[in-house]
Amino acid sequence: MSEQKTVHFIIERQDGPDSKPYTEEFLVPYRPALNVVAALMEIQKKPVTKDGKKTTPVVWECNCLEKVCGACMMVINGKARQACATLVDQIPQPIRLAPARTFPVIRDLQIDRSVMFESLKRIRGWIDVDGSWEVNTAPIQNPYTAATAYEIAHCMTCGCCLEACPNVGPQSDFIGPAPTVQAYLFNLNPLGSFNKDKRLNALMEKGGITSCGNSQNCVQVCPKNIKLTTYLAQLNRDVNKQALKNIFNK
Amino acid sequence: MSKKNIIVVGGGLSGLMATIKICEAGGEVKLFSYCPVKRSHSLCAQGGINACMNTKGQNDTTWEHFDDTVYGGDFLADQTAVKGMCEAAPKLIKMFDRMGVPFTRTAEGVLDLRNFGGQKNKRTVFAGSTTGQQLLYALDEQVRKWEVKGNVKKYEFWEFIRIIKNDNGICRGIVAQNMNSMEIEAFRADAVILATGGPGVIFGRCTASTICNGSAVSAVYQQGAEIGNSEFIQIHPTAIPGSDKNRLMSEACRGEGGRVWTYKDGKPWYFLEEMYPAYGNLVPRDIASRAIYDVCVNQKLGINGENRVYLDLSHIPAEYLERKLGGILEMYSEFVGDDPRKVPMQIYPSVHYSMGGIWVDTKHNTNIPALLASGECDYQYHGANRLGANSLLSAAYSGTISGPEAIRWSESDDIGEELTDEQLAAAKQTCVDEFENIINMNGKENAHELHHELGDLMNRYCTIVRVNKELDLCMDELKKILVRWNDIGVNDKGHWANQEAMFVRQLHNMIIYAMVICKAARMRDESRGAHYKPEFPNRDDEHFLKTTIASYNAETHEPNITYREYDHSLIKPRPRRYDVAKGGK
Ligand SMILES: Cc1cc2nc3c(=O)[nH]c(=O)nc-3n(C[C@H](O)[C@H](O)[C@H](O)COP(=O)(O)OP(=O)(O)OC[C@H]3O[C@@H](n4cnc5c(N)ncnc54)[C@H](O)[C@@H]3O)c2cc1C
Ligand code: SF4
Ligand code: SF4
Ligand code: FES
């Protein structure tokens, strides 16, 4: 009898926000192009540990399975990344899964990222249109600026960059790279730029851009390859200019 | 209770659009979603959104868009509704542009347009290859603004379970469950909009997100809402087959010059170009899927004898591909490992979209008063087959109709009495009991395995080719699966983030919905759009130029199928052919 090839997972589990973490190990049947989410789905079908103990299925979050919704971010072999886009063939085994503990854990690999959505309120992450009814035609845009906007607009609020940033966490109130850089996106837009001052002022407050220590971790992990540090630097200049402007306008 | 209190279930393009319209009219919205609305399935849409912008010197008209949509849908769509949508499309694009959607632009800085299947003119506005993501984000941002203003309260990570009707049968609330704390709560409203998206997950693997399970639609159907045209399931011709999901290769690949072929007698055979010279690779989805199925299954000419053919972009300059299709090509490399700029991709058709859904009138009212439905969960606009890039449009447009219509209900005396505390408590208790019963299930079946079987069954019998004898068999098997559902064993007995127990409840709804699709397909003895029966290869307008209506029979769990007239008065039905250019108006 030929033995079936399996993939070995060591998963950090936690029953609730205040419970103690523990690990469980699983063997999942191998197949080509197997990704981490597909492996977790196999565990749902057969929630039995490596040692044959029946257990509960592992809890995690996913929707799109194509690296666009941001939901399935977790720490895989020590690195924050999207589980759906992580092929088991491309990483060493055993594969260790853990929740991204920069955020409160809800259960197992599922975390609470509501703080990221709250930060989008703070940076005024929208264009102030008069309404959804017919008003004017939107201004023509420089196609190159629009291409930059398009790049930043890919941010799927996954939180990899916050997990990787040494300055985000309980020790600081830094809102983190993703929401900060979103401010740049809205400032780039011809209509959005009308509220540029407000966004820059929001970034001057506590937890704003001055909390970034320029350690460059974020840009290395962003699954959407957004040039975070480039835009952080640009924003820094804009914020400094705004600070001067504020002084002169006093 | 304050007036104009609307519940919107679903925060995809349609639910968010409705929410904005309600807020603008002074209403308040409770917005329910499985996930943060910013992660809704709409963001998977890649290719684009149709609107007659007429900026390519082709004299495109909204009438042409209307005609293409009706023709593409094999004349089964309500024409007044479609006409309204096509006329509103350019205005919607301008709205999105003002909201900051980073559309791809021309050298002059205006919105670029691309080709899409079933349309001869360039009419598809796009933001690279992530159009849905960008449109969804724009609406998400606007809704966040309304949230800050206090008009919107989000219930994210809440699952809708059922609606609550008052004594007059009017929908005046819902029951929902917090997916973390598991608490079940009943909510009052003046009117309820369902915008819960498509049912793809009933087929197991499909191109949709894992939350597109049709469970909400099934729930209201079991409470008396009618489902229309459920047999019309769109099979997308070009997906990357996968074990967890089939990942879509956008139609934009063909729009930008991609060619579909396989080897025949040792030479590449561009079979779509040969079979349909007028449209070539740009034939609509049903036609392309059927051709690929025929080549692979009947002629056994798939790649290495497997069910796959090539989708080839390798002849197009890499720089052009990067600019127009960057994101999706990256996805192929990422999930398959090959570079589509250099080697042809391997694809096969997959379940993609449901033309059918909750029956609604042109104002998006269901047959249950004060219950509305919009977006992919309704049956409107696409008839027997949807044109590519028309459903982001219908999702957004339908929200601009359902939102104001819900406001109209809230201001009218027709909504009757609001729910009493007793009614709320009773509805809640029903759902609590049902959930506790699920948690206590100790049978032999695993819910996820059973779901896998359901998906296999539906894929085998209810997709590209449908045969009556097999559909009868499928129905029998579905009934068995429904019985086996009772023998599920739930491993997780906890009351905190219990995804397994929630899935068991969803699965029951999915099986019931599957029976609707199967039975409706069985009864329609003709071929039209996505519904193809070799036994009845032609369209039969005499008998089936009608909407299929399914209503739930609680005793048998099966649907009662009837047929309803609809408005096809504006464009006279004519044969739908893609081997020659679209015939006269
Ligand atoms: C891969 C892919 C590519 C596509 N590309 C295109 C394209 O290029 N152009 C185009 O026009 N169309 C495209 N489509 C189709 C289009 O994306 C969808 O039809 C459309 O986005 C549906 O929008 P919606 O608002 O109806 O629903 P969705 O975006 O699916 O949103 C549904 C919402 O309902 C919520 N929900 C569902 N059930 C419940 C419940 N029980 N309780 C609580 N909340 C619930 C979800 O959380 C979500 O917020 C594509 C589809 C796929 C799968
Ligand atoms: S550059 Fe700034 S935001 Fe990025 S990881 Fe470093 S400190 Fe964090
Ligand atoms: S910037 Fe990148 S890493 Fe950070 S949340 Fe957005 S997509 Fe994720
Ligand atoms: S599931 Fe959407 S990013 Fe992984």
**What percent of the residues of chain A sit in helical stretches (DSSP H or I)?**
25-40%
According to CATH, the fold-level topology of the largest domain in chain B is FAD/NAD(P)-binding domain
The helix fraction of chain B, in percent, is: 25-40%
Total helix count of chain B?
A: 15
- Spans of chain B of 5+ residues with little confidence (pLDDT < 50)? none
- Largest interface summary: A-B, 69 and 68 residues
Q: Give the amount of beta strand of chain A, in percent.
A: 5-15%
Number of domains of chain A: 2
Specify the CATH homologous superfamily of the largest domain in chain A.
Alpha-helical ferredoxin
How much strand content do the residues of chain B show?
Answer: 15-25%
What about the largest sheet of chain B? 6 strands, antiparallel
Structural class of chain B, please?
A: alpha+beta
Q: In the CATH scheme, what's the topology name of the largest domain in chain A?
A: Fumarate Reductase Iron-sulfur Protein, Chain B, domain 2
What does it look like?
The complex is a heterodimer of chains A (250) and B (585). Chain A is α+β, with helices and mostly antiparallel strands. Chain A folds into two domains: 6-111, Beta-grasp domain (Ubiquitin-like (UB roll)); 114-248, Alpha-helical ferredoxin (Fumarate Reductase Iron-sulfur Protein, Chain B, domain 2, Orthogonal Bundle), CATH 1.10.1060.10. In chain A, 32% of the residues lie in helices and 13% in strands. Chain A has helices at residues 36-45, 114-122, 143-152, 160-164, 177-188, 196-204, 217-221, 228-248, and strands spanning 6-13, 22-29, 73-76, 79-82, 95-98, 105-107, 110-111. Chain A is elongated and about 70 Å long. With 585 residues, chain B is an alpha+beta fold. Chain B has three domains: 5-196 and 358-419, FAD/NAD(P)-binding domain (3-Layer(bba) Sandwich), CATH 3.50.50.60; 240-350, Succinate dehydrogenase/fumarate reductase flavoprotein, catalytic domain (Flavocytochrome C3, Chain A, domain 1); 422-564, Methane Monooxygenase Hydroxylase, Chain G, domain 1. Helices cover 36% and strands 17% of the residues of chain B. Chain B has helices spanning 13-24, 62-72, 79-98, 131-149, 215-221, 252-255, 271-275, 285-298, 318-336, 391-411, 421-439, 447-461, 468-485, 499-523, 541-544, and strands spanning 5-9, 28-33, 49-50, 113-114, 124-125, 152-156, 158-165, 171-178, 184-188, 191-194, 227-228, 233-240, 247-248, 259-264, 267-269, 309-312, 345-354, 357-358, 371-373, 547-552, 559-564. In chain B, the strands form five sheets. Chain B has a six-stranded antiparallel beta sheet. In chain B, strands 6-2-1-10-19 form a five-stranded parallel beta sheet. The chains are: A alpha+beta (250), B alpha+beta (585). At the A-B interface, helix 1, helix 2 and helix 3 of A face helix 1, helix 3, helix 4, helix 9 and helix 12 of B. The site of one iron/sulfur cluster has 14 residues of chain A, from helix 4 and helix 5.
